[in-house]
Amino acid sequence: LGAVEASVRIWSIKEAMTKALGMDMAQSWDRVEVRDVGENKSLVLMEQMEYSAWHDSMDNHLFTLITDVVEPA
């Protein structure tokens, strides 16, 4: 991914976590760490819990869905 594509995914992840966990955007920027940014899937860490973020786009709009907690290996 290029810098713009990765930045948009990071923003989208933070916004999705805000909505999924009922916090405000400032809390999300402080508490949510994006560990790996991918074209279709990213890894997110918040308070020692890992989440998956799934990305899809349509007509130049990016959609991100936070789906689950990743179980530790």
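That was protein one. Protein two is written in the same sequence-then-structure order:
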Amino acid sequence: MTGQPYDLTIRPKLEAFAAMDPLSEVLRSVRLAGGVFLSGHFTAPWCISVRITPADCAPFLNNPAQMIAYHVVIEGEVLVGVDDNPMMAVRAGEIVLFPRNDPHILANEEGLTPVSAGSLIQKPADGGLYHMRCGGGGATSRIFCGFLANEEKHNPLISTLPKTLKVDVRGATAREWIEASVRFAAGELAEGRLASSSVMSRLSESLFTEAVRQYSSTADERIGWLKGLKDPYVGRALALIHQKMNAPWTTSSLANEIALSRSSFVERFTSLVGLPPIRYITVWRLHTAKLDLQESRKTVAQVAHAVGYESEEAFSRAFKREFGVSPSRWRQQHTTE
């Protein structure tokens, strides 16, 4: 650690890059918060079962609707397993993310019986970083555990991702920023201090953006949301839709924003995403409204306005066409179960 925790010239460079990058623009609309809450020190042999909970996020974010767990390996090697899938090796300088926060196993080798990580976590007396230690005294592995979270349960990007994503920080597009931020956070946490929320939020966004970027560059998808996001025109349109969901978008206005003719835009968007642009907007708005009806105390009219409908009546008609019942009836059915 030096006196200057990170190069302040990196942020403008990253923001300039993001301004030309549809993926970064869409991710800004996800509004991720993040933090690092635990350090782990393990010696072979060792094996733990892990599930990040909302309580782990408490110092950073109350009641997150969606969580993405991640582990930064800073020494040694860690094997990661989810369900019955083959275990994946994550080495020092790499990060593994779990887009839907699936329970997982961390170990130094396969075939070991896992111990619950929750039973090993120790709370520091000085109120600093939680930590855990376990193992048999052999080769050392060290990690930092963190999370990304937001308040929206339904997000088309996260739903398209696999259960695990691995990022090699050393090869990242924004590696200088990511490495500097990780070092800064690690240094603060090692001294018993939580890293500042602004640094951790930018780190979270950088980690997630790079993970999705690396995945999307190799994913073999013939059609779908992620396929559309990789296209410079359709990706820009998706970013605009998600940044301004309640804007009065039309096919023509979106086409104008991305500098394509209306017919070219419709053909391009539909062939890549699988839905025409206005149908995509309708589906996204109504799914967002459905969650809002279930989880908030907003009136139907307030929900309608929040997702871009000018009147409660128009919203109710669209909602019933999509889901078969009125918004009021849907809310009643799903809040009394």
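The longest strand covers residues 33-43. Keep this in mind for the problem set.
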